[in-house]
Amino acid sequence: MDAVSPATRHRPTSPDAVRRRALVNRLNLTTGFGLLVARLGRARRRPGPEGLILAEGYRLKFPIAGAFTVGNVVLTARTFDELEASSPGVLGHESRHAWQYYRLGLAFFPLYGAAAAWSWLRFRDPAIGNVFEKQAGLVSGSYVESALHRPQRRRPDVRN
Where are the domains of the chain? Predict the structure, then answer.
């Protein structure tokens, strides 16, 4: 995750900043909630890069995603080795979501829901127009932005 990705503007993070993020995400209760979700999904936990907690083998069917982050906990039904092999850079994407929790705390949940709903209404996709996914990097999150996901421009009614 130390490589700089022009698609996501990801830069290596100092160890002090990573520790601060971990502390704030524990204090704002998002990491505790993420650990609860991992336990409910019977995921195996292990330490990950940048202070993340990786939870593999998540068994619940919601949300439908290759991986998702709650606080500093990144969850997947697969292993992270498999996930990184099929979607290089996905841990960098999920790490940026952990920074979003750092900034927003529990408010991230309703704000993300609203952004996903707006994206769905606009593009028929919960991620492509979602500001949180765009900031985390659509490409590194395995989302592909294409002309199919751009809103249709309305043509002016030209009647004479």
Answer: 15-149
pLDDT (tens digit per residue) in 23-40: 999 999 999 999 999 999
Structure tokens at 143: 């989302």
> Cα–Cα distance between 87 and 98 in angstroms, integer?
18
Report how far residue 94's alpha carbon sits from residue 67's, in angstroms, rounded to the nearest whole number.
Answer: 8
Q: How far apart are CA 68 and CA 98, in angstroms?
A: 10
Cα–Cα distance for residue pair 116/136, rounded to 1 Å: 14
Q: Are 93 and 137 in contact (CB under 8 A)?
A: yes
Alpha-carbon distance of 115 to 101, in angstroms, equals 15
The residues, ordered by sequence, that sit 6+ positions from 46 with a Cβ below 8 Å of its Cβ are 53, 54, 56
Sheet of 68-70: strand order equals: 44-47, 53-56, 73-76, 68-70
| pTM exceeding the 0.85 threshold for the entire prediction | no
Residue 52: strand, helix, or coil? coil
